[in-house]
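User: Show me a protein chain along with its predicted structure.
Assistant: Here is one chain, sequence first, then structure tokens.
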Amino acid sequence: MIVAKEFGEENYAKLDPLTVSLPHPEALAALVSRKTEINAHFTSPPFQYIEAKSPNVHRVLSSTDYLGNITLDVTFAPKKFVDANPKMTQAFIDALDEANDLIAKDKKKAAEIFSSSSKVKVEPADAQEMIEDKDAKFDTTPNGVMNFADFMHRAGLIKTVPSKWSDMFVPQLADRKGS
């Protein structure tokens, strides 16, 4: 979407031949080491923060600059599972909401929990800095997903655009003010 904004929608894939997909930890190591051909990385927390602290890396752009504060991470479950387990699905959403409330109310404790449970080594102070970033949003309500769906349709990547954001998510979220 960023390439489409810069070069026109018809050129949305213009830079694809210059890209390679890697897991974030591998891309982080490659970028920071400067020992591979990897010289850029579109990433997400906590990797973007780790990279930003490296003297070998500088930020060129942020998805927030181009796309606004969009939902970055989504949890998936098969529709069949969600339909068969509405109480479990709601309990999972409630747990996510509870975690988001903790993050909002006690960033230090949330950072300590993240630091002690993450597979990525992040000190509690660094985790708290990430959580306190003005662009970091913690919400269970999807935001900006229709922009992606509309773009994907215009680019021919999907045949049908959902009529509303909630068509793409579990029914337990439908009454929220997503986008």
